């Protein structure tokens, strides 16, 4: 919270002074305060050009409470309000205080793993090559936040005697056991390694296993399909585990592998269909240029050419707007850097 005139910020309830709310930092003073629900502006007043705090209490202080009051007043002396500026929320995880989804994700990943440089691991998740719900599950899995029996027992959702793995029935079901060390899932991972012709040993944890998986150069399968395979296996493991718990369906690992292959084919078909739809949109945008060429000043064309370092390619985009400033045609595409000039020339010629 960035405080301006103090009219929208709660004195005790909002986090505006330090890392904690004042009622958490000074719980005893909050209990005897006569202004528990008041805003900052109602807890003080302007005496000319000087800001004076006017805190009211339900009773006199005990001797030991005076020390807390003095600490509070020392903190308040550092505050300088601005009568001409409104209070506003700021996002502490970005430099300019603005909220971005990327900054939120980076903050969550850094806090969960204990260090800030986590992009090398998570860049392989947000690729858009599997459905968003599968990407989200993989993200929770690597962060260690996926609900297993052991995690549910820790938050008192299930009893401490209900944490046994549903697939093998031998060990406690935590993330590393369920997705790597369980004898059932070992057959699935081993089958994938045989297909990829990779010699491997069981890794210690899910995150290190995912990093190892993404570093493999599997020429026979292809990198894109290889990463898809990791998502398909963990997705099917989670599905089979839920089938056993809620439906009491006992599925063999051979049948599970067949379902993994089915998921891979289904996701590849979805990606192919999405590319075809994008190609149709681009073709429609190109053909829509012809009828409006002779209408002077009715339409305008804009080209954006930007280098995207994370994808090692060029981003080319453009749109047509009518006299009411409504977008009629929209076009964007990622391109290899070497084809940049030719595509720009084609787009400019089409627009002219």
TrEMBL record:
<dbReference type="InterPro" id="IPR026960">
    <property type="entry name" value="RVT-Znf"/>
</dbReference>
<protein>
    <recommendedName>
        <fullName>Reverse transcriptase zinc-binding domain-containing protein</fullName>
    </recommendedName>
</protein>
<feature type="domain" description="Reverse transcriptase zinc-binding">
    <location>
        <begin position="117"/>
        <end position="189"/>
    </location>
</feature>
<dbReference type="Pfam" id="PF13966">
    <property type="entry name" value="zf-RVT"/>
</dbReference>
């Amino acid at each position: 919270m960035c405080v301006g005139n103090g009219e929208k910020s709660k004195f005790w309830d909002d986090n505006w002074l330090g890392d904690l709310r004042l009622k958490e930092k000074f719980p005893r003073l909050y209990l005897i305060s006569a202004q528990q629900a008041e805003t900052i502006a109602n807890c003080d007043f302007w005496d000319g050009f000087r800001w004076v705090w006017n805190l009211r209490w339900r009773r006199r202080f005990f001797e030991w409470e005076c020390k807390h009051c003095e600490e509070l007043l020392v903190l308040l002396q550092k505050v300088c309000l601005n009568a001409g500026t409104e209070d506003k929320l700021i996002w502490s995880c970005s430099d300019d205080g603005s909220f971005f989804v990327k900054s939120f994700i980076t903050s969550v990943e850094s806090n969960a793993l204990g260090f800030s440089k986590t992009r090398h691991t998570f860049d392989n998740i947000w690729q858009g090559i599997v459905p968003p719900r599968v990407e989200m599950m993989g993200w929770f899995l690597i962060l260690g936040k996926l609900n297993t029996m052991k995690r549910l027992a820790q938050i008192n959702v299930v009893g401490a005697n209900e944490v046994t793995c549903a697939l093998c029935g031998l060990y406690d079901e935590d993330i590393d056991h369920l997705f790597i060390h369980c004898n059932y899932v070992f057959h699935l991972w081993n089958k994938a390694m045989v297909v990829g012709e990779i010699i491997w040993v069981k890794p210690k944890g899910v995150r290190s296993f995912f990093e190892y998986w993404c570093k493999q150069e599997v020429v026979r399968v292809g990198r894109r399909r290889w990463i898809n395979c990791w998502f398909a296996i963990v997705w099917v493991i989670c599905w089979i585990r839920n089938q056993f718990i809620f439906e009491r369906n006992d599925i063999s690992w051979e049948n599970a592998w067949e379902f993994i292959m089915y998921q891979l084919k289904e996701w590849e078909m979805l990606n192919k269909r999405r590319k075809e739809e994008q190609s149709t949109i681009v073709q429609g945008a190109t053909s829509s240029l012809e009828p409006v060429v002779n209408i002077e000043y009715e339409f305008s064309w804009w080209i954006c050419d930007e280098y995207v370092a994370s994808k090692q390619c060029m981003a080319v985009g453009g749109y047509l707007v009518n006299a009411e400033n409504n977008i009629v045609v929209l076009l964007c595409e990622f391109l290899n850097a070497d084809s940049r000039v030719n595509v720009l020339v084609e787009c400019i010629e089409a627009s002219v």
